[in-house]
Amino acid sequence: MMPPTQLDISSPQQKTSWRCAVCGFVFEGEKPPKGCPVCHSPSPEFIIFKSKEQLRYDGAKFDVLIINGSTHRAGNTSYMADIAEEYLREQGVSCRRFNLSEYHIDYCWCCYAVRAESCAYPCRNKNDDMPAFHQMLAQAKAVIIASPINWNGMSGRLKIFLDRTTCMENLYHLNKPGLTEGKVAGILVCGHEDGAIKTAMDVWLNLQQLGYILAPFGIAFRTHGSQFNSSTDKEFFRSDELIVRHTKGVVNNVIKMMQLDAEARLKGNLVPVTE
């Protein structure tokens, strides 16, 4: 006699909420969608959607802070950040990497415009994720910032991030000890076409006002070209040897400069010249 058929009473797999880190679209499913129906971003841009918790810095020391300033956490600029992060770890250098699209950073309140004393560190806006980034900038020995090219300049997300460092720059105007002079910087820029040098210089102008030292040969940039459809950029960059060699070169130079410990040697011996 055949055994009785047993009913499948297993519950269906629980659906997960996925949020597009680019536009905020929320999708319910076991896996993220193949692409965002709103902004057309690919599946890797989706992250698990959960109640937002403010970013906190745990106080643990590390050497290099990597900031991916692109709106796309898994795009071409992110690829340069991936290379940088992997190379740092290969060299035994501790680092932390953040994609700004995954965090909440408010626009600068421009307290300085009211009165200089109102713009102070810690920042008056303690309600978003930027205070944790302030603390990590103050602790890390170096920062590597990766930016896309948006209209011949940095991304809006990165601009807001750098705007929010004003409270750290303003320490010098208030005759208080600075937190970033003598630290090392490297800059990575990736884009479809023109504007790489200008983008890098825009980022650098912010960092040098904070007292950072640009590593020798500390800027790497790579573009594809306006004659190509932007949909071909991903394949181009990921098969390009130059983007790998130049990115690793910048990271190597940041490491070598960091090992000179210029921050300790220069601390208290510089004349802040900022605006």
Question: Can you describe this structure?
Answer:
- There is one protein chain.
- The chain has eight helices and eight strands.
- Strands 5-4-6-7-8 form a five-stranded parallel sheet, with helices on both faces. The chain has a three-stranded antiparallel sheet with strand order 2-1-3, with no helix packed on it.
- By secondary structure, it is an alpha/beta fold.
Per DSSP, what share of the residues sits in E-state strands of 2 or more residues? 15-25%
What gyration radius follows from the Cα positions, in whole Å?
22 Å
Q: What is the count of distinct domains?
A: 2
CATH-level-2 architecture of the largest domain: 3-Layer(aba) Sandwich
Mean pLDDT score: 92
SS element count, helices = 8
Helix content: 25-40%
Spatial strand order of the main sheet: 5-4-6-7-8
Series of H and E elements: EEEEHEHEHHEHEHHH
Give the CA-CA distance, first to last residue: 90 Å
Key words describing this protein structure:
31% helix; 2 domains; Rubrerythrin, domain 2; disordered N terminus; 8 helices; alpha/beta; Rossmann fold; 275 residues; 8 strands
In short:
This protein is of the alpha/beta class and 275 residues long. It contains 8 helices and 8 strands.
Blueprint (SSEs and pairs):
Layout (H helix, E strand, L loop, with lengths): L15 E5 L5 E4 L16 E3 L15 E5 L7 H15 L4 E5 L30 H10 L2 E7 L7 H8 L2 H8 L10 E8 L4 H14 L3 E11 L9 H6 L2 H19 L2 H5 L9
Parallel strand pairs: 4-5, 4-6, 6-7, 7-8
Antiparallel strand pairs: 1-2, 1-3
